[in-house]
Task: structure prediction
Amino acid sequence: MKMKRILAVLLAGMMTATAFAGCGGDTSSAASDNASDASSSTELQVKDSIVDYSYFGDEDNVTLKVWAPDKAVNLVKQQVEDFKKAYSEKTFNIDVVAQGESDAATQILNDASVAADVFSFPSDQLNKLVDADVIAKVAFVDTVKDENSADTVTAGTIKDTLYAYPETNDNGYYLVYDNSVVTADDVKTLEGTLEACKKAGKKFIMDCGDGFYACTFAFTAGAKIDGLEEDGETQKFVDYDEDEAVDTLMAFAKLIKDYKGTFQSLNVKQVASGFSSGTCAAGVDGSWDTEVNKTALGDKFGAAKLPTINVNGTDKQLVSMFGYKYIGVNGSSKYPATSQILALYLSGEKCQKERAEQLGWGPSNLKVQEDSVVTESAALQAIKEQSENACVQVNISSTFWSPMGNLGNKLVADAWDASDKDATKKLLQDTISNVRDEG
Result:
């Protein structure tokens, strides 16, 4: 990115290059919300996620591409139309394209010059985007900090620089269940949940081969992650009691064996389809599937934090992975100012509330968090409670996911001996070693 040229475009007619640090320098004043225009006005420049026209500089007849998750494409298209209306004096051609969030970073890294100008992505991808210098720094830092929860701002910050606009505060999973089969008391424990499912002749589904979900086994055992080592590549684990961890993994394996046929490791999509067919009574699923699960269950929809598991007489809370979703701006965008303004708009209060209402997404915006659409949502409250028992999905090594998926697959395999302590200890040690293996 030609830094000086982009700064000149963005700041033309409104401020000097030293007043804007969105593409380099001190981002604490990046496109400051109170920045003076040519007439030295001190009026607030950002209101309800709408900025003064001067922020566009000389950008007009703008062509942009926006990447949005499949389930959000139609809503984002409408939000883009609302954006156009808000800036009716400008001409835009904005194409909204479906792109999986988990693949966004990979696609941008392949060729940033042809990727979307504005895109959604999960928190664990931020490091690679920053390291590759393909994501622009946030222009409206003060507004983002004022309007969003501190944890989402912190997770979007690297070395004191904010790189992403918070979009959600809910990127995690919880227990969803058929409340005509499983009671609110049953779901407090994994044992109670499985017993209720078994009595009804229905499945409990968890995707144990996917490291995103399977890491729950390791985390609950105590092998929790804490960012990266000083080399910036190797996953860091907190200290844990290996004997207790092994006992916990054995408890999972034994419970799965005891409820063979009830506990099933299937793709997460099978949870909703199982509810629809009446074959599933409970499962581990994420915020992104809340609406489809609600549709499948109707009045029977139930939601709770993940349950506990009994380990040698003590109930241990299941610990999950939890993260955030962001909206980023491509550092190679030909229209950097408009891209920043659009990202601000899409991450603002109005759009976050619409996503909460129509998609069931949990907002990072502080005002929307207090809205009844959130406070009265069983799913969002369950996710919030589970987030207090989770490892944050930030600074995740690329070597993390596969070994965790292998751990899950081993524990649920028919051939696995749940009573073999030595084999379980080796499995845990190998998992940690493989996660930390940079090769």
Notes: The chain has a mean pLDDT of 89. The chain has 18 helices and 18 strands. The domain at 3-169+324-375 is CATH 3.40.190.10 (D-Maltodextrin-Binding Protein; domain 2).
